[in-house]
Design goal:
This protein is α+β, with helices and mostly antiparallel strands and 148 residues long. It folds into two domains: 57 residues, Multidrug-efflux Transporter Regulator, Chain: A, Domain 2; 69 residues, OB fold (Dihydrolipoamide Acetyltransferase, E2P). 35% of the residues lie in helices and 33% in strands. The chain has seven helices and eight strands, in the order ααβααββααβββαββ. Strands 6-5-4-7-8 form a five-stranded antiparallel beta sheet. A three-stranded antiparallel beta sheet has the order 1-3-2. Helix 3 crosses helix 4. It is elongated.
């Protein structure tokens, strides 16, 4: 009875796995580039019983910010609303709480989290969902959530 009854939190909530094509799309890179990252062991994968690579969401999250660093600000901004703010941190929505007129949005950026309080209307307008890629735009004391 002992050890078999205890399961780790990871066993109960297995990580989301992406196909290489889906991971490339999320990261905004080409499929051949992502495959090279896998072959050069820059990106950790798990293999299916059929030998196909799958990329854990945690690995994809590690590269969300780094990919945007390689792309110039002009090209990166073309994917977002035109704004004067320069400090954009790209991450994944990991928590979303809506209560009345306000909402709390938490993004995972690399191994850190950033939380913003925005209106519930903004959450509905942007159709924000947990798991979605978004950017936090930081200006002075404000943090705004922007969809790509």
């Amino acid at each position: 009875m002992g050890a078999a009854m205890y399961k780790s939190a990871q066993d109960m909530n297995p990580p989301k796995l992406y196909t290489p094509r889906d991971a490339a799309k999320v990261l905004g890179i080409s499929y051949p580039t992502l495959k090279q990252w896998i072959y050069k062991k820059h990106l950790k994968t798990v293999k299916t019983p059929g030998g196909h690579h799958r990329i854990p969401e945690t690995e994809v999250d590690k590269y969300l910010g780094h990919v945007s660093d390689r792309v110039g600000p002009e090209k990166r901004r073309a994917n977002f609303r035109r704004m004067s703010g320069r400090n954009q941190l790209i991450g994944r929505v990991v928590d979303l709480k809506v209560d009345g007129l306000i909402a709390q949005v938490t993004l995972s950026i690399g191994d850190q989290r950033i939380t913003s309080i925005i209106t519930a209307d903004a959450v509905r307008e942007m159709r924000l969902k947990v798991g979605q890629t978004a950017a936090a735009m930081i200006k002075s004391t404000e943090v705004m959530i922007v969809l790509p």
